[in-house]
Q: What sequence folds into this?
């Protein structure tokens, strides 16, 4: 199997799986129980929250554990709207994950006004346009940190400064950035990320909420790990998330360097091919290479790749079947290019020989279709 869909999900790291099974066995007690075993379990969770918050540059009480980045995103959008009911304007973008777009559409139906920030020719948010959209009644600006389709990194530090200058709250979906890009959350009020994108298990994620900003929880049911998300603390999943995060931070430089070399190799091999155009640019993280193979239909081409036991995606795995890539269209203004775009996502687990196989399949497609 040749897997180039690491931005959709990653295989669990063996050490993370080991931690998960060990803690599930040894610390199965309910951390909210007042007996000694419960309290011991609570201490394990507190310790891991401390480790994770230290890595993320936040306070331990600023990390809420959720089940997924979809849940984190929905909690922020709806929970902030409930907390500050007098503000009815939200700013976002066309390249957000479906969970942001979905939550925003829901709020739009409740009477909220939505504005989308333009992208410049490099696929980055136009900050002048963003500033012109900010209003007295703006509830929240929610903008993604790294575009999941083109890998383009957005200037979330500057966006945060701008929002704070205008006293507007800022949320960023950092799901594709964690472990793959450096970022500073000093001026970010809320942020969402997920374990399964960083070689952790599915079913656990994080929501950062700074201490000085408000939020109404979506799930009520008493104080759990925090007051913002009820249900019995998922001790082993918290430990697994923490281990995945620790490995991501410890190995960041090595993985980044290795994957950068692989990306250069891939681009060198495909960029001279007929009908192949590269959509990612110098703002893209090396882990995502977006290419268009012109005059092809993704549903057919992905099958060709699958028949070779080779897996990549034609756009964000969570988008609807009919859509084309908003991100590629935003940069290229070329519908055909956006319709025939493919995301090749690389990892420290990828090899040059896997890329050779991928390139040979692309060459065949270009010659035969
Ligand atoms: C940018 C972004 N946000 C949110 C999600 C959803 O993550 P989860 O599967 O943890 O809900 C994804 C995953 O596809 C993503 O790429």
A:
């Amino acid at each position: 199997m040749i897997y180039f869909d690491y931005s959709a999900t990653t295989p669990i790291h063996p050490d993370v799986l080991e931690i998960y099974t060990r803690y599930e066995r040894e610390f199965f007690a309910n951390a909210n129980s007042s007996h000694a075993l419960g309290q011991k379990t609570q201490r394990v969770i507190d310790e891991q929250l401390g480790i994770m918050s230290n890595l993320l540059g936040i306070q331990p009480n600023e990390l809420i554990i959720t089940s997924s980045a979809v849940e984190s995103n929905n909690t922020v959008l709806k929970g902030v709207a409930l907390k500050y009911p007098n503000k009815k304007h939200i700013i976002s973008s066309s390249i957000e994950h479906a969970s942001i777009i979905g939550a925003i559409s829901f709020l739009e139906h409740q009477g909220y006004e939505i504005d989308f920030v333009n992208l410049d020719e490099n696929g980055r948010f136009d900050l002048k346009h963003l500033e012109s959209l900010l209003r007295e009644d703006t509830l929240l600006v929610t903008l993604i940190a790294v575009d999941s389709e083109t890998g383009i990194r957005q200037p979330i530090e500057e966006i945060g400064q701008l929002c704070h200058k205008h006293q507007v709250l800022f949320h960023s979906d950092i799901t594709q950035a964690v472990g793959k890009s450096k970022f500073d959350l000093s001026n970010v009020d809320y942020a969402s990320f997920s374990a399964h994108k960083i070689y952790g298990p599915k079913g656990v994620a994080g929501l950062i909420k700074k201490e000085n900003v408000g939020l109404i929880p979506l799930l009520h049911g008493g104080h759990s790990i925090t007051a913002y998300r009820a249900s019995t603390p998922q001790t082993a999943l918290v430990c697994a998330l923490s281990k995945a995060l620790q490995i991501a931070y410890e190995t960041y430089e090595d993985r980044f360097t290795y994957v950068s070399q692989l990306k250069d190799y891939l681009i060198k091999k495909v960029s001279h091919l007929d009908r192949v155009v590269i959509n990612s640019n110098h703002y893209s993280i090396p882990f995502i290479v977006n290419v268009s193979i012109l005059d092809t239909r993704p549903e057919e081409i992905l099958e060709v790749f699958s028949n070779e036991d080779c897996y990549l995606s034609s756009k964000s795995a969570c988008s609807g079947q009919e859509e084309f890539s908003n991100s590629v269209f935003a940069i290229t203004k070329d519908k055909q290019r956006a319709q025939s775009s493919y995301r090749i996502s690389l990892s420290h687990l990828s090899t040059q020989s896997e890329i050779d196989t991928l390139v040979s399949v692309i060459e065949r497609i270009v010659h035969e279709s």
The chain has a mean pLDDT of 96. Residues 106 and 144 are 19 Å apart (CA to CA). The longest strand covers residues 288-293. Residues 36-56 form the longest helix (21 residues).
